[in-house]
Amino acid sequence: MRQTWRWFGPKDGVATDDMMQAGVEGVVSALHHVPTGQIWSADEIRLRQDQIGSRRDGTASGLQWEVVESLPVSEDIKKQQGAWREHLDAYRSSLRNLAAAGIEVICYNFMPVLDWTRTDLAWRVGHGGTAMRFDVYDFAAFDIHILKRAGAAESFPAEVVAEAEKRFATMSDARREELTGNVVYGLPGAAENFSLADVRAHLAQYAKMPRETLRQHLVDFLSEVAPEAEKLGLRLCCHPDDPPFPLMGLPRVMSTEADYRAVMAAVDLPASGITLCSGSLGARADNDLPGMMARMGDRVHFLHLRNVTRDTDTIPCSFYEAEHLGGGTDMVALVKAVLVEEKKRRAAGRSDCSIPFRPDHGQDILDDLTRKAQPGYPAIGRLKGLAELRGVMTALEHGDGVGD
Length: 404
Ligand code: DNO
Known about the structure:
- By secondary structure, the chain is an alpha/beta fold.
- It has helices at residues 16-22, 42-52, 75-79, 84-100, 136-146, 158-170, 173-184, 196-206, 211-232, 257-266, 278-281, 289-296, 331-347, 368-371, 379-397; strands at 2-6, 26-29, 65-69, 105-109, 120-124, 130-134, 235-239, 272-277, 300-305, 308-310, 319-321, 356-359.
- Helices cover 42% and strands 14% of the residues.
- An eight-stranded parallel β-barrel has the order 1-2-3-4-7-8-9-12, surrounded by four helices. The protein has a four-stranded antiparallel β-sheet with strand order 5-6-11-10.
- The longest helix is centred in the middle third of the chain and has 22 residues, at 211-232.
- The model has no long low-confidence stretch (mean pLDDT 95).
- The structure holds D-mannose.
- The site of D-mannose has 12 residues, from strand 4.
């Protein structure tokens, strides 16, 4: 298992120097400033590689850019409208430039309009630190009473609608504004940064799109880009929906094992693979993460290891981002399934037998509370997660029969 770490570039509050002290082996990054649909040029890629390769004082860090997260897929491609053909050409050109730079693993997602969604970026946990949270009642309050989406009330269970109404009635203006910002203005890594009006306009465009159509558009996208990725020796990997249930009436197509199976079967190439995110998928009680790794592991090219604690097992549900070994996913069983898959790959002579993972997100603890890095991406909280995961890996590899 390759120990990687997400870095948002020079503006990230956590530096390459910090990654080195955390014992990180490789870096996950993206060119967030390049507008979606445009080509990632060789020069821009090289610049980011140089930044990753340097410490604050300009000396070499020894780190390399190993995973792209994300090479974003445009809304036009998701809807098959407007400039989608040009965007596909640009996507293939970016893949060629990344391959020429020696970067092989490319993560993307196919969530329409919004990337990951949370209602709280700094929710107080029992120990006094903070975590990110998705609260279904607050979210419904936003959808029904702030966004005022037609049909919003019908898309939640009656009990959620009733509680959302109470919450909204007592919510301060400041909290209403904060909630809107958290949901709409884009969390780190999101390709787009929308206003409330933009979101309404985008939602209207998807209003009549059945999920089968969106899934077909994903299959069409992969049919266009995966053969090129295969030729270039790249591994594409689709990140799941976060959270893994429909929001705002938008179709969601990568929320369950069945979703992944359908898409992997439709474009059955090794280059078309999976980003197994235990945090996103773990927000549904019916997703069995160790089982998914055991059954679909040969197509898993990248792992996001984190955990969530669900308030209920309903779909949708509220949840918060737990400590990496806490929460609903049996992390030891998941790591074991990853080690078993790597062993199979070694036996088969595959070159990708060390699967990159990142300690995904972290709670804000200790100095994180004043450092104010990107929400979800603290230095110490992630370092703690990485250290715990490293402990599990080390213990499992130590003589229980899964190592060589
Ligand atoms: C959140 C992330 C997402 C993810 C994209 C992948 O922390 O996991 O922003 O990067 O959805 O395309």
